[in-house]
Amino acid sequence: MATASDSPPVFVTISALDAGCLSLPERMFVTDADPVKKNLVPTLSFLIRHPSPDGGVANLVFDLGMKRDLEYSPAQKERLYVWEPITTDTDCAQSLRNGVAGAPGAQSGVLLDPAKDIDYIIISHAHFDHTGTPSDFPSATFAVGSGTLDLFKNGAGPLCSGDFFIDDELPALRTIEFPPVSRAGTYGNEPYAPKHTPVPANSKVKPPAAAASWSWKPLGELPNTLDFFGDGSLYVVDTPGHIYGHVNLLARLGEKRWVYLAADCCHDRRLITGEKNIGLYDDGNGGQRSIHVDIGEARGSLDRVVAFSKSQEAQGFTVEIVLAHDPIWRKENAHACWPGKM
User: Fold this and answer.
1) What CATH code is carried by the domain that includes residue 204?
2) Which residues form the signal peptide (predicted)?
């Protein structure tokens, strides 16, 4: 697949970061589930390193995992029991500083300083197990899906109550939203859907130069992708359904090698293989709901990711899909954890 220009292809590297663990009740995520089983899963973050034209490296972190002190909103704290046991022994900042325990090259000295060495942070979506501790990164520019800042402040409808968010979760003057996505149908067009927040006049964001021309374009089976650095090395992928503003990343690691960071497109690898489908559970009001705001949109997003992967593999590419909460992947890939790489 060609890059965005005729220049030589640019490749990034990716390293996984431990950022806490939580437990997922299986019945909430997949069909035909054990009604009492809970699975302890990682909340993975990822360090993406992009070569700069001047010979340096831009450091980007995708998702921040759990807050190490669990200082969430009162409503969030009241619901933490659902996700227990929870561990925050290692958070994103510590993984960056010292490397991930068990990874090759991990050490007690400082590998990367979260306060100084991280240029960009992309948050996949507003849920508590992905937003981490933003204050650990006082010099980074944050980037989020359109509507995310409004979602933090006001919530969005019956399945996204504002009580379950922290209104100033991200630094307003250092956060930029990706452009809005135009789509037909109801999703994202409801009266309560969160609104896009433009960059304020006194903003301190320092996005990559390509931000001046960011726009959503199709890439294979993915209808809306955005070339983050403008060189075909890292694409932001609009993935509606889980929650408003949800985005994934597609990274180019080699001539014919992609890694797809799927965040919460799904929470169990058996949904990718087709062994399971998205589960429904009691909504507390006599009905049923899924873990997604819109199960149809979420299913469509996942289907497109799988279709993209199969199409690329048919053309001789490899596509590795990595979920944010996959304990099997984490167990099998200690070598891919910082300072190791995928």
Assistant:
1) 3.60.15
2) none
